[in-house]
Amino acid sequence: MKPPALETQETHGIATGESQGRDISRAMVGLFKEHVGRGPTVAKAYIHDDLVVCMLHDTMTKAEKTLTEEDKAEEVRQIRRSFQGLFREQACAEVERIVGRKVIAFLSDHAVDPDWAIEAFVLESDRDA
Q1: What residues have CB less than 8 Å from 2, skipping those under 6 apart?
Q2: What's the pTM?
Q3: Is residue 45 a contact partner of residue 25, using CB atoms and an 8 Å limit?
Q4: Fewer CB atoms inside 10 Å of the end CB: C or N, the chain?
Q5: pLDDT, averaged in runs of 10, over the chain (129 residues)
Q6: What is the pLDDT of residue 120?
Q7: How far apart are CA 39 and CA 26, in angstroms?
Q8: What is the largest CA-CA distance in the chain?
Q9: 45 close to 28: Cβ distance less than 8 angstroms
């Protein structure tokens, strides 16, 4: 069975941003694949002023889904926090490369039911650069 196509959301409000949302989405999917063993099937990136948000759906491994079914959702969240810490630097570096601005804060969280993750990046203001 062919996996679902990766869905992306283009950015708004940035002259060169038409492909930036797609590039950020793909970068985050790649990091998930590298660190978790599989990537999400849906990734949508939004850029607005000094904020980049990437929403990811269907990120959990079979083992994580099994744990969730056994009422171990908090354990899954703890595991995810560990992975997020591991790819923090790479995620920030990818966003900085794509948008050409420094990331000053990275926030990440994961809901297990339904399976959605958010990677948020606060950018240094153009006025501060």
Answers
A1: none
A2: 0.81
A3: yes
A4: N
A5: 41 55 96 91 96 96 94 91 87 97 95 94 83
A6: 98
A7: 10
A8: 49
A9: yes
